Amino acid sequence: MVSNQTDSFEDIPKKRAYTSFKKSKEDKVRFFLSYGVDVKTLLNKIESLPSDKFLDIYYTFTKVYASLSICSSLGQLQNQWQDTDKVIVTILVSLAESIYRLIRPEQSLSVNLIKWFFNPVKNKLLHKITFNLSSHPDFQSEDFIAPIVLYLIRNDYLHNWEFFGMFFLNEKMKDEHCNNYWAFDYYEKLNKFDRIGATSRCSLTYPEFLSIFLEAFKLNIEKYVNKS
């Protein structure tokens, strides 16, 4: 795009962002619909936002597409019997934290941002992602354990460099109505040096989880837009 010479230095990236967003709008609609999520009305609302709010969301969409592109490449490695699920979980959970920080920028606790991000799709994750709660009193009071499990698995990768393991169901497991179980470690809340072993249970394939993730993304962005 060639900018008018009278444009200020700050206005040029804003104009480019608006142009790029409009050109890719139909592609965004098709992509989200492929996962059962309709964003057409939302995208129209986003276009009419003040420039600072618009740019927040524009760059958030950019993060989503970049993250999912990386996850897709990791998924190809997974098909070659490379363990990449924990890396995928780490990317998506970190993305969820980043997205919800738009809504609650003052919140410093990552686990809260991740819980709030997934809260709009709580009914779709209940009993789908969990772990052996009876052995872990730190979390027995939690009524929505899925985001906690995702957060702990993310931390196991980031802090312990433990990235082996298939977290999601594969298609064969799905056909056989199985669950996928995998071990991970976390650190006790009060004693940060006490490493505790846990076992997760997941009954979702990666595409199923991604569909739920993108629905949560849409609902949270709607919340941000309506708040603006």
Q: What do these coordinates show?
A:
- The protein has one domain (11-227).
- It is mainly alpha-helical and 228 residues long.
- Helix 5 packs across helix 6 (110-118).
- A three-stranded antiparallel beta sheet has the order 1-3-2, with helices on one face.
- A hairpin with a 7-residue loop joins strand 2 (180-187) and strand 3.
- It has helices at 11-23, 25-33, 40-47, 51-79, 85-100, 110-118, 122-125, 146-160, 171-175, 206-227, and strands spanning 129-131, 180-187, 195-202.
- It is globular, with a radius of gyration of 19 Å.
SSE layout and pairing:
Blueprint (H helix, E strand, L loop, with lengths): L10 H13 L1 H9 L6 H8 L3 H29 L5 H16 L9 H9 L3 H4 L3 E3 L14 H15 L10 H5 L4 E8 L7 E8 L3 H22 L1
Antiparallel strand pairs: 1-3, 2-3
Helix pairs in contact: 1-4, 4-5, 5-6, 5-8, 5-10, 6-8
What descriptors fit this protein?
228 residues, mainly alpha, three-stranded antiparallel beta sheet, 10 helices, 57% helix, disordered N terminus
